[in-house]
């Protein structure tokens, strides 16, 4: 720790710093709580989407065998043409939010294509959408956790370092200034007594 100046000016500076730390700390603590709550909520949504994906996969499993037919290629119909997302601000940090995936219209020969293709395309697209939703949620949670880590470090810095350090500096400066004032008073008393003794000696001479 850097050596502090034991002066009234430094005392004021340390007191001002302490007030600033104490004013800023609640804001950081609130941000930390908001981030923690949002991470919990996002994880609940993520788990829900994962469960939906598992169920959706079970539903599309019966299409897999039909896709082995050489004349059927659904891949061109399962490539998203556009991904729509927006950002949501949580405690000062922006996280991505999934809106929708856009697919081009599936156009094929209705006479030569089996009737189940429409249903298969829809089922696979729903699976792809869920995967993208999960990916965006995971990305947002990573951002939130990173911000929570930084915020927690700052809270700890203020709680465990900055505020105690400023309080200790104030204590040391006040002790030193108090001692200096006491010494000054003592010296004044000694000087006054000596003056009185000299005056008395001159009077008696």
User: Over the alpha carbons, how many angstroms does the gyration radius reach?
Assistant: 37 Å
Assembly of the depicted chains: single chain
- Low-confidence runs of at least 5 consecutive residues: none
Helix content: over 70%
CATH topology: Helix Hairpins
What structural category arises from helix and sheet content? mainly alpha
Order of helices and strands: HEEH
Report the span from N to C terminus. Answer: 60 Å
How much strand content do the residues show? 5-15%
The tally of domains stands at 1
Largest sheet: 2 strands, antiparallel
CATH architecture: Orthogonal Bundle
Describe the structure using short key phrases.
205 residues, mainly alpha, Helix Hairpins, 2 strands, 11% strand
Describe the structure.
There is one protein chain. This protein is mainly α and 205 residues long. It has one domain: Helix Hairpins (Orthogonal Bundle), CATH 1.10.287.3240. It has two helices and two strands. Strands 1-2 form a two-stranded antiparallel sheet. The mean pLDDT is 84.
């Amino acid at each position: 720790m850097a050596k502090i100046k034991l002066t009234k000016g430094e005392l004021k500076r340390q007191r001002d710093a302490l007030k600033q730390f104490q004013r800023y700390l609640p804001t950081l603590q609130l941000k930390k709580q908001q981030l923690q709550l949002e991470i919990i909520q996002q994880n609940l949504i993520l788990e829900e989407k994962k469960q939906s994906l598992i169920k959706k996969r079970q539903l599309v499993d019966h299409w897999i065998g039909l896709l082995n037919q050489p004349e059927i290629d659904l891949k061109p119909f399962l490539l998203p043409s556009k991904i729509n997302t927006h950002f949501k601000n949580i405690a000062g940090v922006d996280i991505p939010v999934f809106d929708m995936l856009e697919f081009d219209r599936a156009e094929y020969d209705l006479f030569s294509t089996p009737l189940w293709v429409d249903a298969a395309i829809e089922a696979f697209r729903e699976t792809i959408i869920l995967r993208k939703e999960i990916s965006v949620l995971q990305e947002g949670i990573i951002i939130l956790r990173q911000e929570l880590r930084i915020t927690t470090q700052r809270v700890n810095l203020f709680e465990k370092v900055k505020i105690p350090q400023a309080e200790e500096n104030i204590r040391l400066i006040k002790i030193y200034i108090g001692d200096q004032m006491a010494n000054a008073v003592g010296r004044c008393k000694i000087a006054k007594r000596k003056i009185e003794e000299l005056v008395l000696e001159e009077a008696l001479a």
